[in-house]
Amino acid sequence: MNKLKLAIHCNENRAFIPDIINGMSKGFTVRVGDNKKIQETFELMKWSDVSFFEWCDKTAIGISTLPKVCKNIIRLHGYEAFTGMLDAVQWDYIDRLIVVSPVMLPVVKGRTGKVKPTVIFNGLNMKNWKYEKKEKGFNIIRIGYINEKKNLPFIIQIMHDIVKVDNRYMLHLVGESQNTLISRYVKHLTRLLKLEDNIIEHGFLKQEKLNALMGNMNYLLSGSIQESFGYSIAEGMACGLKPVVHWFEDAELIWPEKCLFKSQSEAVEMITNDEFNSVEYRKFIKDNYSLERQLGEIRQLIKEVAK
Asked: pTM higher than 0.70 for the full model?
């Protein structure tokens, strides 16, 4: 019996796809395209039974205007829904849409024609994140780009209140800038609030170095105004860090409410109080967002679409 032929199409942002490629290769014949040229993408689609498009981006828009030669699945993460890209796709051409959490359902509602979104939560490869049982401490890590959505100035203001409680607290910033204006403002705010001795900037870190740094951390602090999921939160919890997460819209559909804060004072309280359960944080990710669960649900969806 011939294996189902699956083409996986992804642009240069492959942060979330390697584990899926490896997982789908067990059971399907898989080829991977880089989306650089639409004609090459189309040729790969003609070879496939099912084409899986990572990101609802310009490639998804482009292929939706071509003759239909296979079944097509798009996986949307988050940012695409806040641009015109989602609305530019010809949805009659697409068979299924995956969103990575129920947070995205109201955002895409009424914008995808007859294609109803299917929620398949992101999965974390627990083997990639070193767990060490942790306790209360003074090291806080924030991971992610510096851009509007990540709300870093809010984190700096929280840090200002934390050091009033105890000036031993340190904030470690991991991630590169996507917005010069915000980066300049963060530096200005840091100087203005006299936090230079309490904030360390690490820039972008590859996984090995990030793992090593997480080994010395106690808290994962997220101030995002929106996340479709929040991989850095899951990664921190998998390493045993206490999550302290700004309550963005529908965040309670992903993360435990006791990990969510609504105000600066609540964030300070969550970091400085005595509640800390490193084992529980990792267990939550293992029980809810395992890679095995994600791969199984994607595999089943592909088989359904291929019928």
From this structure: yes
